[in-house]
Amino acid sequence: MEAEKIDEKKIFDPNNNANEALQRTLATIDRLGLNENxxxxxxxxxxxxxxxxxxxxxxxxxxxxxDRAEKTSGKKIDLDTxxxxxxxxxxxxxxxxxxxxxxxxxxxEEKPLALITYLLGESCHLSSIGCHFKGMGEExxxxxxxxxxxxxxxxxxxxxxVANVNYALTPYSKEAGALAMVPYSHTRSRQPTVNEMILSGxxxxxxxxxxxxxxxxxxxxxxxxWHGSFPxxxxxxxxxxxxxxxxxxxxxxxxxxxxxxxxxxxxNANNERFHRLLGGKQAYGWQGEGPNYEMMAEGPKxxxx
Length: 305
Description:
Blueprint: H1 8-11, H2 17-31, H3 35-43, E1 46-49, H4 55-73, E2 90-93, H5 101-107, H6 110-120, E3 125-134, E4 142-146, E5 162-168, E6 179-181, E7 209-210, E8 218-222, E9 226-229, E10 240-246, H7 262-267, H8 272-277, H9 293-297
Antiparallel strand pairs: 1-8, 2-3, 3-10, 4-9, 5-8, 5-10, 6-7, 6-9
Helix pairs in contact: 2-6
């Protein structure tokens, strides 16, 4: 039997689904003035988008996070003056999407989401949304790591399986416990070794760069990129919002599909992207009802759709 001939013109046709999706994404990035950010993302493995959140959104986000932190800790926390006696180290405040409408708004911020779409495709979904609430002390160190390397053997694929948007809600500096990034590390396609993970003391990885940010700035990075955070050395709280996304076929950290409160679905009834981000187009995970073949047919065909 004669082997079927491959129609290369069809495969590389710029009008096919995958290339159409890429062109849509690149057009959005160009419209939003993010071409330099895209170049940084490709070369460094991360990029900073300045001033994504305005003053009102920053304050609303901080207020909602502080409310959760005080309920969790059982005590009042002063964001400017807290010491180790008031709040020691770091805690992760998880599953925050439904705490306040502001988290819906931040998840849908157009500029970071455009870069996330480039990394993960139009079909990507929310994996988790939460705050790394950090006070003074060495307990607040987060060792360098790759989000994509959790449970996946090396070498990691060169394309991004997951990607992060880290919003600074308070000023970031090394002494304030800033996010740390290692430039170009996404090209290594592996987790850092034990020695490479260190971010404090004499053995700290010299490649790690402190992300000095203003409130409202957002760092977007490729899932392979090594990142962590330095210990906070000054009074007060370093507050962020980490909005973590994953490709369509990657199991999310948080469960949202079929669990979104009715009022939130109604509020976003006309926003197809919002529903997709919360698993509205995820065909897998059926029970007795069996497969939804129509939804399966709508699944991504390439890296960008």
